[in-house]
């Protein structure tokens, strides 16, 4: 049987992924490569929608790929590639942009958020059309163009739902105007994905753009700072290790991280730490976090030492992705009238 196809992308906008990226997305990438025909993309075109440094972008793209491999993404099972290596992404984005209403694009709430944070350089048109490029990323990999009922799956968090809805709308609009070509993609909620909050502000999401260094754990961080951050994580004035999203957001976040990394259920953790206070709980959690990420950090550094091997992986990924993307674009060009 043909496996359902999944597409997911991540931006190379930091020197390391963080714990939230890992538990909310990347760990599921590794799991899904066994059950899906997976296309995983480091989306460097998206990363230039805000001001960037070319050398830094190039390095971060490599580091992102190395981390994904170190986490267990297998380039022989999944198609792992860099967005800019497949020029069809930009070409399809242009076509889809010409099908998008200006007002329709203007309703994207993430743009409103992000543009309000842009500094003196101002907001680019690229940031405005970002969701259209995202639509192209997904639709290029529509399985067997024209086939009914075989939607590509896209893992999305709440903040990406509106963009996926736009992608579905654009797929249908293209089909209506030019003939059946795309299958509207479907949102996929991967089992086991956990939402992780900031260690210092437990009501806010752990985020590379918004969290302070003390609030975020980087995958590539050394064990020392990792332990310190967890020991200093904000909890509450109580002493009970109990899951309560409203009254104990800090402890609840730590329980969620512990359970997700170690596999012990939250009720079992509550029982284990009954009456023992926060100190031992945090100390054990710190160990679990260090044990999870130390091998990933070591493998990443090793992979980065062998540029040639990394380049071979990327060439293989680009070739496989290009095969599918080129076929889709051939149909698109023909239908649009090129
Ligand atoms: P950031 O918010 O740090 O900029 P991104 O928006 O680039 O991260 O997110 C990349 C992926 O990681 C997305 O799939 C997103 O849903 C997931 N992700 C990011 N932060 C978290 C978090 N705190 N908890 C769970 N998943 C997260
Ligand atoms: Na973000």
UniProtKB/TrEMBL annotation:
It is found in: Cytoplasm. L-tryptophan binds at residue 137. It catalyses: tRNA(Trp) + L-tryptophan + ATP = L-tryptophyl-tRNA(Trp) + AMP + diphosphate + H(+). The keyword ATP-binding applies. It is an enzyme of class 6 (ligase). A motif ('KMSKS' region) lies at residues 205-209. Keywords: Aminoacyl-tRNA synthetase, ATP-binding, Cytoplasm, Ligase, Nucleotide-binding, Protein biosynthesis. Its EC number is 6.1.1.2. It comes from the Bacteria. ATP binds at residues 11-13, 20-21, 157-159, 196, 205-209. InterPro entries: aa-tRNA-synth_I_CS (IPR001412), aa-tRNA-synth_Ic (IPR002305), Rossmann-like_a/b/a_fold (IPR014729), Trp-tRNA-ligase (IPR002306), Trp-tRNA-ligase_bac-type (IPR024109), Trp-tRNA_synthetase (IPR050203). Transmembrane segments: none annotated. GO terms for biological process: tryptophanyl-tRNA aminoacylation. PANTHER family: TRYPTOPHAN--TRNA LIGASE, MITOCHONDRIAL. Catalyzes the attachment of tryptophan to tRNA(Trp). Homodimer. Belongs to the class-I aminoacyl-tRNA synthetase family. This is Tryptophan--tRNA ligase. It comes from Actinomadura spongiicola. The gene is trpS.
């Amino acid at each position: 049987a043909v496996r359902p196809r999944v597409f997911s992308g991540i931006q190379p906008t930091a020197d390391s992924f963080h714990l939230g990226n890992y538990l909310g997305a990347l760990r599921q990438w590794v799991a899904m490569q066994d059950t899906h025909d997976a296309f995983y993309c480091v989306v460097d075109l998206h990363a230039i929608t805000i001001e960037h440094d070319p050398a830094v972008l190039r390095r971060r793209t490599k580091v992102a790929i190395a981390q994904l491999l170190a986490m267990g993404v297998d380039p022989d099972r999944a198609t792992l590639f860099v967005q800019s290596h497949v020029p069809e992404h930009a070409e399809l984005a242009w076509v889809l942009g010409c099908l998008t209403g200006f007002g329709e694009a203007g309703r994207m709430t993430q743009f409103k958020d992000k543009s309000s944070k842009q500094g003196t350089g101002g907001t680019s048109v690229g940031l405005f059309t970002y969701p259209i490029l995202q639509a192209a990323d997904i639709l290029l990999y529509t399985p067997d163009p024209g086939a009914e009922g075989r939607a590509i799956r896209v893992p999305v968090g709440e903040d990406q739902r509106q963009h996926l809805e736009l992608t579905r709308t654009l797929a249908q609009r293209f089909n209506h105007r030019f003939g059946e070509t795309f299958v509207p993609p479907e949102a996929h909620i991967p089992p086991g994905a956990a939402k992780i909050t900031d260690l210092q502000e437990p009501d806010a999401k752990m985020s590379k753009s918004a969290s302070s260094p003390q609030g975020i754990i980087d995958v590539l961080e050394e064990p020392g700072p990792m332990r310190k951050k967890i020991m200093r994580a904000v909890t509450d004035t109580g002493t009970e290790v109990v899951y309560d999203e409203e009254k104990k957001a800090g402890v609840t976040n730590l329980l969620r991280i512990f359970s997700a990394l170690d596999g012990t259920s939250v009720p079992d953790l509550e029982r284990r730490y009954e009456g023992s206070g926060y100190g031992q709980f945090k100390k054990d959690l710190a160990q679990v976090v260090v044990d999870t990420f130390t091998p990933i950090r070591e493998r990443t550094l090793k992979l980065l030492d062998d540029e040639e091997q990394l380049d071979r992986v990327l060439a293989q990924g680009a070739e496989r992705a290009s095969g599918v993307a080129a076929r889709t674009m051939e149909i698109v060009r023909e239908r649009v009238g090129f």
